[in-house]
Description:
The chain is of the alpha/beta class. Helices cover about 40% and strands about 15% of the residues. The strands form 4 sheets. Strands 10-11-12-13-14-15-16 form a 7-stranded parallel beta sheet. Helix 17 links the parallel strand 10 (about 350-355) and strand 11. Helix 20 packs parallel to helix 21 (about 495-505) and helix 21 (about 495-505) crosses helix 22 (about 525-535). The protein is globular and about 75 Å long. It starts with a helix and ends with a helix. The structure holds one DNA strand.
Amino acid sequence: xxxxxxxxxxxxxxxxxxxxxxxxxxxxxxxxxxxxxxxxxxxxxxxxxxxxxxxxxxxxxxxxxxxxxxxxxxxxxxxxxxxxxxxxxxxxxxxxxxxxxxxxxxxxxxxxxxxxxxxxxxxxxxxxxxxxxxxxxxxxxxxxxxxxxxxxxxxxxxxxxxxxxxxxxxxxxxxxxxxxxxxxxxxxxxxxxxxxxxxxxxxxxxxxxxxxxxxxxxxxxxxxxxxxxxxxxxxxxxxxxxxxxxxxxxxxxxxxxxxxxxxxxxxxxxxxxxxxxxxxxxxxxxxxxxxxxxxxxxxxxxxxxxxxxxxxxxxxxxxxxxxxxxxxxxxxxxxxxxxxxxxxxxxxxxxxxxxxxxxxxxxxxxxxxxxxxxxxxxxxxxxxxxxxxxxxxxxxxxxxxxxxxxxxxxxxxxxxxxxxxxxxxxxxxxxxxxxxxxxxxxxxxxxxxxxxxxxxxxxxxxxxxxxxxxxxxxxxxxxxxxxxxxxxxxxxxxxxxxxxxxxxxxxxxxxxxxxxxxxxxxxxxxxxxxxxxxxxxxxxxxxxxxxxxxxxxxxxxxxxxxxxxxxxxxxxxxxxxxxxxxxxxxxx
DNA sequence: GCCGTTTTCGGCCCGACTGTTTTCAGTCG
Length: 588
């Protein structure tokens, strides 16, 4: 059964193929927008494909796209897509993916030089015949050559958890530059997306040159891609991985507008600008200005901005609530009356409910775990080592678990300022049964049930498996529901809506595993779970601690949960000790 | 192809930078 992601990929491809045929750019954009809407949609579109009105209710999907979705659901393909694939060589899509090559150029390469693939492109670069094309000089060709090599060496987008420390290290240096009032990272990193295309930085200074100088001279800069009056772009090489980084320096009075602009998303910005126009204003990265007919930008003519020093001022002048960065994705947040939910925040987390010790595959002792959790201001830490089936992870047989429970109770006596829960991360077998019997499970304060094996299971089976687990009366939480590993393993494709409904009915929490390789549930799943579970939906955010540094993964889980719109009061880790413990006991 | 405080047609955000041009097209975010 195809997923929304599969469908989104097809519409994205249609949009690229249309671009290459030279189609109307608004039509191209409409398909790209539909692809995003589909990828972000929390309802499984295959299940409502017959309902044209329901499809068209989704922003960005009109009558034509709705028909194509139904066609896909009924026949397994879309004729327009197939026709485009016959017309346009599919190898051109990888040529289009080369940084610096856009649809116009790729089309010329195709029509004039019969380039149909990346290999063809390399060939006409090697034999020099690419130079016969218009606007192709030495530098352009050299840039294309380097872009191809960059693309071949980098494996696409960088995981959030890998990008964050790089960004913070750069930021530290930018903030130290004399004359810099403020600096932040922006872009998809600030929005907390699970993968990052490039790093964006914004700095406030009246002396852009000195900031640029520091930025371009950093030791990890491999190449300066662009360097102008107000922005510059470099390619970084850090621990063998390459990533592009862009810096924009603006005067302090424009800082908020620039941060807003560079944080995006692009679609969110477009909505803001459209709204500004309707209000007789124009928004750019320097501020919000009165609209006039002059051809030059307002800031260049000394026009005074009505807002721009802070992001808040811009939203306020547009009559909007301030939108948290994680929710700036054009999902209706730019509209009258929209109010942000009281989102979960890192500082509100008071408990870690998924942690391993050296009894299974962790490196910490129970005491060390407790001390580290206490130092973070937590009122509760759950010790949840692996169950017997996870042999590779040194999972505990029942007799070892019983001894472990005794050790945990003893440790609890030594640590009076934090509650140490005796728990387990129990394997969910492929058929939905659990890895310990009920009698043993009942001895535990907390049971986290997680899938670890059979992760290529059929979606319908996976759904039944997870529904069975969350419906089990002794289970408190479903750990990393899909078992995916970012860029390494797809994991299960369960019907999250069904799992979330069952979980809510049994007051079982669904975990957002904060490990940046997992981020599982993902943002879309969190939103699905909240919608499906309603008032009873419970979400946990846990670090799945194996090593001391794992506690620091929490922020990635929080960002992911915020992207899913998780309010703090639905997050069990934010609850008071009394409320959390009462919920746990209610299942005993 | 979508959408509506410009509403069933006619719009659809805005600016910076590069390279190849002699005034701007293409790309990017």
